């Protein structure tokens, strides 16, 4: 069983998960359980419901009608009709067949 160095005050663990995700890793949860502490204290504010709800307190501007959009003078992209997928029937295989496939077919016949 591996041992990991843990610094709860600095939000640091040897595994790196605690620093990267700002969420308690399994080592933090185990250490808090052993010390009879709540691991929820070590969860970053970004993941808390109050922070998520604050995002939606702001008003978002609605998208205007297309007639209000500025004129676009850039390059126009047109799709290649040859690359369009046929909707009906079984999809055509794009797998590249090899010599091994030919040998298997001859053995099965």
Quaternary arrangement of the chains shown?
Answer: single chain
| Mean pLDDT score | 86
Helical residues, percent = 25-40%
**Order of strands in the sheet with most strands:** 1-2
Number of helices: 4
Overall structural class, as computed from helix and strand content, comes to: mainly alpha
Q: Are there runs of 5+ residues with pLDDT below 50, and where? A: none
- What series of H and E elements makes up the topology? EEHHHH
Report the portion of residues in β strands.
under 5%
- The radius of gyration over CA amounts to 29 Å
Terminus-to-terminus distance: 54 Å
What profile does the largest beta sheet have?
A: 2 strands, antiparallel
Give the tally of β-strands. 2
Morphology call: flat
Describe this structure as you would to a colleague.
The chain is mainly alpha-helical and 109 residues long. It has a domain at 6-55. Helices cover 28% and strands 4% of the residues. The protein is built from four helices and two strands; from the N terminus they run ββαααα. It has helices spanning 17-21, 26-34, 49-55, 99-108, and strands spanning 6-7, 12-13. A two-stranded antiparallel sheet has the order 1-2. Strand 1 (6-7) and strand 2 (12-13) form a beta hairpin. The radius of gyration is 29 Å and the shape is flat. It starts with 5 loop residues before the first strand and ends with a helix. The model has no long low-confidence stretch (mean pLDDT 86).
């Amino acid at each position: 069983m591996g041992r990991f160095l843990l610094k709860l005050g600095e939000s640091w663990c040897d595994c790196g998960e605690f620093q990267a995700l700002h969420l308690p890793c399994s080592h933090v949860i185990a250490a808090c359980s052993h010390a009879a502490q709540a691991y929820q204290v070590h969860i970053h504010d970004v993941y808390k419901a109050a922070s998520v709800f604050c995002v939606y307190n702001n008003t978002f501007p609605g998208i205007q009608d297309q007639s209000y959009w500025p004129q676009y003078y850039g390059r126009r992209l047109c799709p290649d009709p040859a690359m369009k997928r046929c909707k009906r029937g079984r999809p055509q295989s794009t797998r590249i067949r090899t010599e091994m496939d030919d040998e298997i077919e001859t053995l099965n016949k």
